[in-house]
Amino acid sequence: MEIEKITKEALGIVTPSREEENRVISTANSVINIFNNGLIRRGYKDFEVSLQGSVAKGTWLPGDRDIDIFVILPRIYLNKIKNGDVVNDLIDVARENNLKWIIKYAQHPYIQVLINDFEIDVVPCIKISQGERPFTAADRTPLHTEFVKSKLGGKNTDVRLLKAFFKTIGIYGAEIKVQGFSGYVSELLVIYYGSFIDAIKAMAKWSTKRAFIDMTNTYDEKNAFKKFRAPVIIIDPVDPNRNAAASVSRENLATAIAASREFLEHPRLEFFKQIHRSYPMPQVVIPSIVLRIGYPINVSPDIVWGEIRRLMDSLTRNLEKYEFRVIRSMAWSDDKSVILLMLSLREVRLPPYENHKGPLVDSDAARNFIKKYINDQNVVGPFIRGSRWYVIKKRRFVNAIDLIKYLIPTISLKNLRSYVNEAEFFVIESIEDLRVFNTNERNVIEEFLYARPWWLV
């Protein structure tokens, strides 16, 4: 009963007002007319400019200002999409109508039109039929819209509840930054399980090893995981060769399971509210290093976050290699001006000497190990411990920051290179060390240091 009461109250949070809905639809229709007429004047034939995505499906959340408009073209326009002719025509239409615009990139370029506080993506794609192989990544979107509208059966508010739930626990979005559950996957979960509550109950019973849904009945579970090799597999109903949930990381699968269990046990309205949360001051501050890096200009967030992930993976792996035990790590960015890389370590500084493990005493490599170190005045040993030879030698890196500075030039980066080279380094060993950061950065770092999810009670 309490869950039903909470979800009923949450409907007022996740449902756009009539005024907002009218404003969104009116803005979308205005832009559709502008580009439809502009392309007709430029000789385009047999095409359609239509509303797609969450606005078309009636599943967007209040305050979302992203509108997706697709220019659906026949196959003869494929080369014009690939060589940029179509996007250039879209730019011309925007200019002649005095629209603010920027060019953006996915698999191919598209434009984003800025009207008041709306960001309207105008995306060219090729018209395909269900089951037909797409020519571009955008080609499936109209089929997704059509499928959801035909199958959702009035469960729009259930989708909104699920999207808001994912958003507040930090796992909403398929982009590389988040590696979570997309809007489309949220819709598929409600279609498959029947409601928000039933989806939550099902996720609470998922395994952290894997989750599997196939509404097409194309695969059995074993073959699906052999083919797609992902922790969450939801076969795309409009393209059985695609895993709609390929973006979901194993950690976000685990978060979905744990948060679903928590909601069922302690249902509360906070699971649907996007609010700033204050965290208790950590009683124990794990020694941590923070890198503050500038954010690249005019680069797709997915490209930037791909490089951030590569950088963090390499730093974590190599810090461990040099015996700096990484307890926890996290990257954050406002996607405008700053990136923070945060690493909590068992120790920021290590003793100056280390045990260097050698070969087994009875191995063929033992003689070479002894020869290498027997006359080395800078080591202690060789000596036997257990069944191996060892020496005690001076560490190459005693300070973790020195090691990170050494590692950074060895990591393959393109767009982040100049910004990482100018990174600022901070050692955090107490709350007082956070005073050098602005309020927003400090909130992020405190959340990282606190570590406990806000929804856990």
Task: Note down, in words, how this protein is organized.
The protein is α+β, with helices and mostly antiparallel strands and 457 residues long. It has 4 domains: 17-138, Beta Polymerase, domain 2 (2-Layer Sandwich); 152-272, CCA tRNA nucleotidyltransferase, domain 2 (Poly(a)-polymerase, middle domain), CATH 1.10.1410; 288-349 and 398-450, Poly(A) polymerase predicted RNA binding domain (Alpha-Beta Plaits); 353-394, no CATH class. It has helices at residues 2-14, 18-41, 53-57, 78-82, 85-96, 141-151, 156-168, 183-193, 196-204, 221-228, 250-265, 301-321, 366-373, 400-407, 417-421, 439-450, and strands spanning 48-52, 66-73, 100-105, 109-115, 118-126, 211-213, 232-236, 239-243, 288-294, 326-333, 338-345, 353-360, 380-385, 388-394, 424-428. It has a 5-stranded mixed β-sheet with strand order 1-2-5-4-3, sandwiched between helices. The mean pLDDT is 93.
Strand content: 15-25%
CATH topology of the largest domain: Beta Polymerase, domain 2
Q: CATH class of the largest domain, please?
A: Alpha Beta
Question: What is the average of the pLDDT values?
Answer: 93
User: Which range best describes the helical content: under 10%, 10-25%, 25-40%, 40-55%, 55-70% or over 70%?
Assistant: 25-40%
Q: What's the CATH superfamily of the largest domain, by name?
A: Beta Polymerase, domain 2
- Cα-based radius of gyration, to the nearest Å: 27 Å
The total count of strands amounts to 15
CATH-defined architecture of the largest domain: 2-Layer Sandwich
Total domains: 4
